[in-house]
Design a protein that fits this description.
single chain, about 190 residues, 6-stranded mixed sheet
Length: about 190
């Protein structure tokens, strides 16, 4: 169902590809397209409040040329960064199922195979963390998701970050400073590997 604010807009309503710099060393892995964000605009994190937080942080760290994104053709470009989602379609109630996760995992693996310079995966939330750790043989013991956690998975360093959802940003569980620290660390790791 469309929101009244977007009633006149045509929704993308299809699986979302990732976007950014094909030479990126840092990949940002989100959960799934927001029903009235990426599912509407056709670009992940574009047109929703989580994206407002994400793109502002990427801009502050020098990964983005502007701090906001409202549509696919708004001029946003990313440098040394690629953004995508673990699940490519907007899931009901924003809760992807294990089946959706497993169906989309080969798409992420293929995308990463084309992004040969990626060394760091910033996982926005526990769901993205779980998906990223499935890219290689299961690790034992399983690394626990925490904000700021780091774990090696194959050729990648995973960085844990709370998802910039309103649930986390409105409550102060995730602050701009916390997000900035993660992306500064991602840049440092991307340069060093």
């Amino acid at each position: 169902m469309r929101r009244a604010a977007f009633a006149s807009e045509e929704y993308w309503g299809r699986p979302l590809p990732g976007f950014g710099d094909p030479s990126a060393r840092v990949l940002v892995l989100g959960l799934a397209p927001a029903a009235h964000g990426g599912n509407r605009t056709g670009r992940i994190f574009t047109g929703d409040r989580s994206g407002d937080w994400l793109f502002a942080a990427l801009w502050r760290e020098g990964f983005a040329n502007q701090p906001t994104s409202f549509s696919r053709d708004d001029g946003l470009t990313l440098t040394d960064c690629w953004v995508c989602a673990a699940v490519r379609c907007a899931p009901p109630a924003n809760r992807p199922t294990p089946i959706e996760r497993d169906n989309c995992l080969p798409w992420l693996a293929r995308e990463l195979s084309l992004l040969s310079r990626v060394r760091v995966i910033v996982c926005l939330g526990a769901f993205a963390w779980d998906v990223a750790r499935r890219l290689d043989a299961p690790l034992r013991p399983r690394p626990k998701f925490l904000h700021g956690a780091e774990s090696e998975v194959g050729r990648y360093t995973l960085l844990g970050c709370y998802h910039p959802s309103q649930q986390n940003t409105f409550t102060g569980r995730l602050t701009e400073a916390m997000l900035d620290t993660v992306f500064a660390r991602a840049r440092e790791l991307g340069r060093g590997r």
